[in-house]
């Protein structure tokens, strides 16, 4: 299907230790802060019951700080006695995150803060310390995988044709805060340059797997996923390696140039906030086929016909499909919106 205008329900999962989130029914816009909290380090254990000379069951009675409260180094967590005082204090600045059944206190240092921003214009329909869900209307385009934090900004074309690769020289500080459309391929150099120039996000047909590992580390996976830390935001629409965009997918980018947009990383989807009548909804993206060298995907264009069971170069036998570029295995052909 490709581009579709409709109502979307967008869930924003929250990291642990959320301290604020909006009320249900609130109106938000893409880019608005939804929730914030603290990043916590490894907790430090403080043996409370032994130092206080109490049974673990009696520690609650003398505790002075609730679990979840922020504390400073030296803050009294629990105290007993008047003339002969025994006290347990926080060993570091941080947050009291747990009190065990053994009467021990756990204080985690605060290493930073995080903020989750909205990826949709709409109304908050769910809000708690686990997730904030926003429902709204927009043009949407699904992809294969996305990486980095959610991004929002104006769309800007970075290529002249859907088969072009985004050249690093096309990216500069004038693109700051924008979401750049990168054509068939974006390499690691273009991704890192865009991030250094303050670009909000990148959208392209594909990115090489090796380049993604260079930018996001060896732990990166094909399924992608959101991150809290400051990283580039990349949305791969078709696959990995190289993926020339179908005309039905690329031309709307030309129409949407300069419009507000957002990348929702968890669902690997691009949202564009534009009127429903701006595009011809009859445009339907073609099926995709895996390239013969397995180095990317391409649109399935032109007339096709089944060839029956065919033997391929790998000595595999399966149903074949004749295309203008040769016979391809039917399992290597998928509709644009099919799970990949």
Q: Over the alpha carbons, how many angstroms does the gyration radius reach?
A: 26 Å
Secondary structure tally, helices: 5
What's the structural domain tally?
3
**Cα-to-Cα separation, first versus last residue:** 14 Å
The CATH level-2 architecture of the largest domain is identified as 3-Layer(bba) Sandwich
Main sheet, how many strands, which sense, barrel? 12 strands, mixed
Q: Strand portion, in percent?
A: 35-45%
The CATH superfamily of the largest domain turns out to be Phosphohistidine domain
- Number of extended strands: 27
The average pLDDT is: 88
- Uncertain regions: pLDDT < 50 for 5+ in a row? none
Question: Roughly what percent helix?
Answer: 10-25%
Description:
- With 340 residues, this protein is mainly beta.
- It is elongated.
- Strand 9 and strand 10 (104-108) form a beta hairpin.
- The chain starts with a strand and ends in a 6-residue tail after the last strand.
- The chain contains five helices and 27 strands.
- It folds into three domains: 42-108, OB fold (Dihydrolipoamide Acetyltransferase, E2P); 135-278, Phosphohistidine domain (Glucose Oxidase, domain 1), CATH 3.50.30.10; 288-334, no CATH class.
- The strands form six sheets. Strands 1, 3, 12, 13, 14, 15, 16, 17, 18, 19, 20 and 21 form a twelve-stranded mixed β-sheet that branches. A four-stranded antiparallel β-sheet has the order 5-10-9-6.
- The longest helix has 10 residues, at 247-256.
Concise overview:
The protein has 340 residues and is mainly beta.
Describe the secondary-structure layout.
Blueprint: E1 4-13, E2 18-20, E3 27-28, E4 33-40, E5 44-47, H1 48-52, H2 59-62, E6 70-71, E7 76-80, E8 86-89, E9 94-99, E10 104-108, E11 110-117, E12 122-127, E13 131-142, E14 145-148, E15 151-157, E16 178-181, H3 188-196, E17 201-207, H4 209-216, E18 225-226, E19 234-240, H5 247-256, E20 260-264, E21 269-272, E22 288-290, E23 297-299, E24 305-311, E25 317-323, E26 326-329, E27 333-334
Parallel strand pairs: 14-18, 15-16, 16-17, 17-19
Antiparallel strand pairs: 1-13, 2-4, 3-12, 4-11, 5-10, 6-9, 7-8, 9-10, 12-13, 13-21, 14-19, 15-20, 20-21, 22-23, 22-27, 24-25, 25-26
């Amino acid at each position: 299907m490709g581009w579709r205008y409709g109502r979307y329900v967008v869930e924003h999962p929250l990291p642990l230790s959320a301290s604020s989130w909006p009320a249900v029914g609130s109106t938000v816009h893409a880019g608005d802060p939804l929730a914030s909290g603290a990043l916590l380090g490894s907790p430090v254990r403080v043996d409370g019951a032994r130092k206080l000379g109490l049974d673990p069951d009696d520690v609650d009675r003398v505790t002075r700080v609730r679990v979840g409260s922020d504390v400073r180094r030296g803050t009294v967590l629990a105290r007993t006695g008047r003339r002969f005082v025994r006290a347990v204090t926080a060993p570091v600045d941080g947050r009291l995150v747990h009190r065990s059944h053994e009467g021990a206190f756990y204080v985690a240092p605060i290493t930073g803060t995080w903020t989750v921003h909205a990826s949709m214009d709409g109304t908050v329909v769910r809000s708690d310390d686990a997730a904030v869900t926003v429902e709204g209307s927009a043009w949407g385009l699904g992809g294969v995988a996305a990486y980095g934090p959610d991004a929002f900004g104006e769309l800007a074309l970075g290529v002249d044709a859907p088969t072009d690769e985004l050249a690093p020289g096309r990216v500069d500080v004038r693109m700051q805060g924008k979401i750049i459309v990168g054509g068939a391929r974006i390499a690691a150099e273009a991704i890192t340059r865009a991030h250094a120039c303050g670009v909000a996000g990148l959208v392209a047909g594909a990115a090489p797997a090796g380049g993604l590992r260079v930018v996001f580390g060896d732990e990166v996976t094909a399924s992608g996923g959101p991150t809290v830390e400051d990283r580039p935001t990349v949305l791969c629409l078709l696959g990995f390696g190289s993926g020339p965009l179908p005309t039905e997918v690329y031309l709307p980018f030309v129409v949407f140039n300069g419009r507000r947009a957002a990348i929702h990383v968890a669902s690997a989807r691009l949202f564009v906030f534009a009127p429903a009548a701006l595009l011809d909804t009859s445009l339907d993206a073609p099926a995709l086929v895996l390239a013969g060298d397995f180095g990317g995907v391409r649109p399935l264009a032109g007339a096709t016909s089944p060839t029956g069971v065919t033997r391929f170069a790998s000595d595999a036998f399966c149903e074949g499909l004749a295309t203008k570029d040769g016979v391809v295995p039917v399992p290597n052909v998928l509709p644009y919106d099919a799970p990949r």
